[in-house]
């Protein structure tokens, strides 16, 4: 239901240098083993029992049914899914993993066969969890890596174990994705293109008009940037493309501060509090790579006696409920809906296709949606 509404909204919407400090698939193929084979196989077993066939015949029929079910990926209720999340305390990934688990259950997986591990933002911890999932012989793995740069090592061991793999949220680099395609491995990535979210953040500022944004009237826009984990392509792209939208509109910009808040509200709060202390009224726009950090920025802005929409602007990404409420109230200029419904469903659907013996594209994308005062309530009704 929610998915449908999102579809309607989406229909209407449409390597950066690592900046800290200012500065700057293949087509789907289908193996001939669809779920019909599973459905056909089950009655064969029942019939053999009901007809009270001789024991040997019944056993043969049961074996044939099991083989057919195996060929088809078997019944999802029997399949074990291992999910690795980089860090449970991340607000956005909490929405993502909750929806992922619910959707997997809706698709027929048994709750007790879905195991979700908290990587605690530590790659060594997560690698141990992946080893355990391999030892447990899970049927499919869904991984949100702590470090995207560890993807090659992760892929190698998971592929070696013969387990299909769906990466989510933190995209491995292009050469890693190329390896999956070159080798025809059952590995894919599901996520959104962070360039789009960065561009949308910048466009929401541009839409206000230079006169409104340039409070000090010096003909350029002074901003500060609060970045997520810089190892993460989402942080890199949002940092670059948010500002690029302003310069593409012909605006002159001046970066006063660009610091890493690691996606965390408390870190962003202190970064922005310090920046406001240092640059005061010179700061006209605060860009945050995600909403958790924008919420921290808002605390600092309010504590400094500044007012969003009146003497400063603030944008985030994710469309967390709290941020949407701020957009509605005018205490946040805008955010960008990072569609965790679409991403978690696509990840589960890709896992199911692998289990059925079908292939996936090597990159499965999804669109972001701008959230401003005009549509924030609509998005809030959907995400709540
Ligand atoms: C989200 C962030 C989140 C990060 C985790 C991003 O796409 O916008 O809120 O912390 O993913 O990797």
Give a verbal description of the structure.
The longest helix has 17 residues, at 55-71. The strands form three sheets. Strands 2-1-3-4-5-11 form a six-stranded parallel beta sheet, with helices on both faces. The chain is α/β, with parallel strands linked by helices and 384 residues long. Helix 4 crosses helix 14, helix 8 (194-206) runs parallel beside helix 10 and helix 13 (321-329) packs antiparallel against helix 15 (376-383). The protein is built from 15 helices and twelve strands. It folds into two domains: 2-189 and 339-366, 3-Layer(aba) Sandwich (Rossmann fold), CATH 3.40.50; 195-337, Response regulator (Rossmann fold). Residues 1-19, 25-55 and 64-73 have low confidence and may be disordered. The chain has helices at residues 2-12, 35-50, 55-71, 91-106, 123-135, 151-160, 174-183, 194-206, 210-213, 233-248, 265-279, 291-303, 321-329, 340-355, 376-383; strands spanning 81-85, 114-118, 140-143, 165-168, 187-190, 220-227, 252-260, 285-288, 313-315, 335-337, 363-364, 369-371. The site of beta-D-glucopyranose has 14 residues, from helix 4.
Tally of individual helices: 15
Amino- and carboxy-terminal Cα gap: 13 Å
Largest sheet: 6 strands, parallel
Mean pLDDT score? 87
Strand proportion, as a percent range, falls in 5-15%
User: Given the helix and strand composition, which structural class is it?
Assistant: alpha/beta
- Which radius of gyration do the C-alpha atoms yield? 24 Å
- What is the general shape? elongated
Structurally, the number of domains stands at 2
Any low-confidence stretches, pLDDT <50, length ≥5? Answer: 1-19, 25-55, 64-73
CATH class of the largest domain: Alpha Beta
The second-level CATH architecture of the largest domain is 3-Layer(aba) Sandwich
Q: What small molecules does this complex bind?
A: beta-D-glucopyranose
